[in-house]
Specification:
Layout: E1 2-8, E2 12-19, E3 25-33, H1 40-58, E4 63-68, E5 71-73, E6 78-81, H2 95-102, E7 106-110, H3 111-122, E8 131-136, E9 140-146, E10 149-150, H4 181-185, H5 187-194, H6 199-207, H7 211-235, E11 239-243, H8 251-264, E12 274-277, H9 284-296, H10 298-308, H11 329-333
Parallel strand pairs: 1-4, 4-7, 8-11, 11-12
Antiparallel strand pairs: 1-2, 2-3, 5-6, 8-9, 9-10
Helix pairs in contact: 1-2, 3-9, 5-7, 6-7, 7-8
Residues 163, 173, 175, 177, 180, 182 line the site of zinc ion.
């Protein structure tokens, strides 16, 4: 069985095909431009084109998952809010046009929840019963896994870790609220606080002794530390995964975050949890979207399994989870076969 995963970002659309027979593997992955300024309808067409291109190269596939950067109505298959993408997205159909264009069942998931699903099943949080993920970038995404399952919630709305308020009456957030951790700790907020054009410049300046940049990193790490400490206190996750573009700063950011979390976490001993970098790289969201397609469409998975096994009756089966036994072979096998461009 093969599943198409599409990850819609502000700049790029990432596509992968994941095979889930036996040990899951990424069969192929690719990146194309979103062209967000052309508006919602053009972007949906580009998603379909990216899907077609992936299927032509690595298909056929049994279903498609699409990861989107915001909230949606999962019954109607329409978008509600994309805080970081231009254009009138509210009410834009997403599932139906992709279903028609690709002639496939299509499942929709928030991109950070897709990231969480991938990292929890086959990445940095594999084997952890309870985990939380933060995706640090232009915005901040989040997701939680409880008792080994992605906590999806109504319309996939559960796990918005970035929109917990860490500064009462703080700066406005893209979600419409004020003082969310996204509003004060995104890459944009960090660059503005440090007085630098990009976050790469922030970390470069801090490394060469720029006090304003160093202070900005400490401040942002402290906001993130409060948010992560809140999640640790509520859920007691075994692992907290930090991913996304900002996490590319590595230890320069991870260490201040770890110190801040330790400062703000009182009830959970530090040896109960780990704060770890993401493992799957830039295609994690697309891989998670493909896995969500597999997870959320058990009847499709059953049909495909039944056809492959010569008609064996499998109706009522639950979706098969990939083997999460120790050793990491599964994790390695899901790494994209070539580095992204
Ligand atoms: Zn918010």
């Amino acid at each position: 069985m093969r599943w198409l995963g599409l990850d819609l970002g502000g700049t790029n659309i990432k596509s992968v095909v994941v095979q889930t027979d036996g040990e899951p593997v990424v069969v192929g992955c690719d990146t194309s431009e979103t062209g967000a300024r052309d508006g919602p309808a053009a972007v949906v067409e580009r998603l379909a084109s990216a899907g077609h291109a992936a299927i032509d190269r690595w298909g056929p596939v049994d279903g498609c998952g699409v990861g989107v950067p915001g909230t949606f109505d999962s019954d109607a298959g329409t978008i509600e809010l994309f805080p970081n993408l231009p254009g009138p997205w509210r009410g834009q159909p997403m599932v139906e046009p992709l279903r028609v264009a690709l002639d496939l069942p299509v499942s929709i998931i928030n991109d950070a929840r897709a990231f969480t699903l991938a990292e929890s099943r086959i990445g940095a949080a594999a084997g952890a019963s309870t985990a939380a993920c933060f995706v640090l970038g232009t915005g901040i995404g989040g997701g939680v896994v409880v008792d080994g399952r992605l906590h999806f919630g109504p319309h996939g709305r559960a796990g918005e870790l970035a929109h917990q308020i860490v500064v009462r009456d703080g700066p406005p957030c893209g979600c419409g609220n004020r003082g969310c951790v996204e509003a004060v700790a995104s890459s944009r907020a960090l660059a503005a606080l440090a007085g630098q054009p990009t976050i790469e410049d922030v970390f470069r300046a801090a490394a060469t002794g720029d006090q304003r940049a160093a202070d900005a990193i400490e401040t942002v790490a402290d906001h993130l530390g409060v948010a992560i400490a809140n999640v640790i206190t509520m859920l007691v996750p075994e692992r907290v995964v930090i991913g996304g573009g900002v996490a590319g700063a590595g230890a320069d950011l991870l260490e201040p975050i770890r110190r801040a979390v330790a400062r703000h976490t009182v009830l959970v001993p530090p040896d109960w949890y780990e704060i770890v970098p993401a493992a799957l790289g830039p295609y994690a969201g697309a891989i998670g979207a493909a896995l969500w397609s597999f997870d959320s469409q058990p009847e499709v998975a059953n049909r495909a399994r039944s056809a492959a096994s010569g008609g064996t009756q499998l109706a009522g089966d639950r979706p098969v989870k990939p083997d999460r036994s120790p050793g990491g072979g599964l994790r390695r096998s899901l790494r994209p076969p070539h580095p992204p461009p």
